[in-house]
Please model this.
Amino acid sequence: MTIEMINGIAGEMFKTILYVAGPPLIVSLVVGIIIGLFQSVTQIQEFTLTFVPKMLAVFACLFLLMPWMSEKLIAYTTNLITQIPSYIK
Model:
């Protein structure tokens, strides 16, 4: 195994992680900012107000994007497993 192969595997791994983890994190960020603005405007400082909408939004995002996310993870894993013979040369 060469350094280029390891860099290629690591780069593909990080790209897959960003593709899979990015959408729920972005949804959580946007909902958090909206709730933060709402709390600032109304001066409601309830701690649980931020958690419930974020959880619902992230669960909805995961529910809607789970087929796409699992397709990305399966494609990465399949590619990694099929390339094993070239890695051990």
